[in-house]
Amino acid sequence: MAGRRRRGSGGIVAVRDGLWRVDVEVARDPVTGRRRRVSRTVFGTRSDAEVALARLKVADHEKRLPRGGTRARSVRAAFQLYLSAVESGVIELTPATVVTSRSAAKTMCDVAVGDGRLFGDVPLSRLTWSDIEQMYAGMRALGHGSAWVRRCATVLTRSLELARKRGLIDANPAKDAARPRTVRSKPFAPVAAEVRAVLAVARDRDVEVADAAAIVASTGMRKGELLAVRWCDVDMEAGEVHVAAAITDGGRGVGVIRKATKRADWRDVPLTGGAVAALSRQAARRKALLGIEPRPDDYVFPAGVEGLVPMRQDALSGRWAAARGASSVTLQHLRHYAATAMLDAGESYRTVADILGNSESTLRLHYDGRTDVGKRRAIAALEL
C-alpha cells in the first residue's frame, strides 16, 4: 500500500523526444470500485508536460473530467458535441444560426492543414492555435471572405469551449488563434429623393410591396420584423406598432418560423403619417380580398389569401426587386435610410438605436462615419 498513488497525484512519462504522456489519478469508478487514471499526450518540452499535468489536476479538482475517463477525440467530434447540445436545447440558438453553425462546422472540417490532414480529423489532444490559424489561412486560400471566416471562428471557439467544459481538452486553443480582420465600411443609405422616386416606381408595379417598403423606410424595421407584424400589433389611433418578433427560415425540415427579435427584446415604434396610410391601404386590400376585416392574429403581409401564414423574407425581397425597376435600392438600404435620416436630423444614438432595435454601440460602429448636423455644427465653429 505504501507505493500506491493517492487521488490527485500525477505523473509524466517520456514516450520519445518531444512527446510526453501525463496522467492523473482520479476518483474510483462508482460502479466497479476500480482505480481510474486520465491521461493526455503532450508535444513539446518537459516544461510543457508539467503545465499540462497541472491543468489536468485542476480539471479533476473542478470535476470537469468525464466519469469514464477520456480518449483522443477529433475536432469533428467537438463540432458534433456542440451541434448535439444545440439540437437538444442545452445551448439555445436561433434557427438561422443553427443552419449557419452546421455549415461552418462542415466548411472547417473539410479544410486541409499543415501536413495535409483535414482539420476535422485533427485529434483534440494535438490541436494547437497554430493549427487553427493554418485552417483560417486555408479558408481564405479557398476564397472564403474574412466575414465568413470570422463566423466560422465563433462556431469553433464555442465548440472547443464546450469540449473544455466536458473535460475533453484542458484549454481552448481557439482563444489564442488570431482571426482575420474585417474592414468596416460605411453602409449605403439613399437620400430622401431617391426613396420617394423608387417608391413611386414600385407603386405602379406592385402596390402592396410598395406599401411594405414605405413602412420599412418610415420605421427602420428589418424585413423579418415587418413580416412578423400582426394586426393586433398595430395601433392606428395611437400611431405605433409593437415589434416583438421576426420571421426566419429554419432550414430544411424546419421551414419558416416566428421567433423573438434579433436582440430578443420588444419595442414600440411610432408611425409616420405615411406609414399609417400604407397600413390602412393594406387593411383595405385584405378586407376586399376576404370580405371581412382582417383578424387580430392575421399577419399584415401574409403569404396568401389566409392571413395565418407569414410571407417569406426571400419572397418579399424578390417582389421588391421586380417592383423597384432599374433602381438598386434594397429593403436593407431603406433601413439604412431611416437610421441616417434620424441621425442627420440631430437625434441621439440612444433614441435611434431604440427605434431600430440595435444596441447603441452597434449603431455607432456602422453610422459614426456620417456627416450629421452635429458634425457640421462642430466644423462650423472652426471657421476663421
How would you describe this structure in keywords?
384 residues, alpha+beta, DNA polymerase, domain 1, hpI Integrase, Chain A, 3 domains, three-stranded antiparallel β-sheet, 14 helices, elongated, disordered N terminus
According to CATH, what is the class of the largest domain? Mainly Alpha
Please, what is the average pLDDT?
Answer: 85
Count the beta strands: 10
What amount of the residues lies in strands?
Answer: 5-15%
Work out the count of structural domains. Answer: 3
SS element count, helices = 14
Strand order of the largest sheet: 1-2-3
**Silhouette:** elongated
**In the CATH hierarchy, what is the architecture of the largest domain at level 2?**
Orthogonal Bundle
CATH topology of the largest domain: hpI Integrase, Chain A
Low-confidence stretches: 1-5
Q: Using only CA atoms, what is the Rg?
A: 28 Å
Largest sheet features: 3 strands, antiparallel
Distance between the first and last residues' Cα: 91 Å
The CATH superfamily label of the largest domain reads Intergrase catalytic core
